[in-house]
Amino acid sequence: MNLFELHNSLTITERKINGIPLIKTKIESQLNALKARTNVSANKIDFKTIKIIYGLGNTEASPILLRIYKEGSVVIDKHGGSLIITWTVKLDTLYAMAFSIAFISLIITSIVTQLIFSFIIGIAVFLAVVFIGVLFILASMNELVLSSVYKK
Questions:
Q1: pTM metric for this prediction
Q2: 10-residue block means of pLDDT along the chain (152 residues)?
Q3: Half-sphere CA count of 141, side-chain side, radius 13 A
């Protein structure tokens, strides 16, 4: 188990699914809509968020800077009558964001309370942000994959 990556695997056995080439195309187009650069091979899609530099007055960079699933891959395999889709997302950005928020909360609470309580609050905030971030990534990636799999 790697603490810096989040993995999930979906097994689909229903009949009303798209073909593998169409699933790859739909996943790739959804990732491109999220401003991610994709690299498609035989059964794997690697993605990485494009770093876009905007001018000082443009605020469109904010959603890209706050995106916590910046890099990962989606693997599509067919075994017998079932389709197995495994995705992986790197969590380094989530950990950096959680550490930053925890550090800010530690500084703010150290003004009001004792230092030991500030550390406890900082650790609790770090764990809460990581937990919420992991749940958000799970929901977002499962929605991305499942919306590409089923026929409409």
A1: 0.80
A2: 85 78 87 84 85 52 54 88 89 90 93 90 95 91 86 64
A3: 27
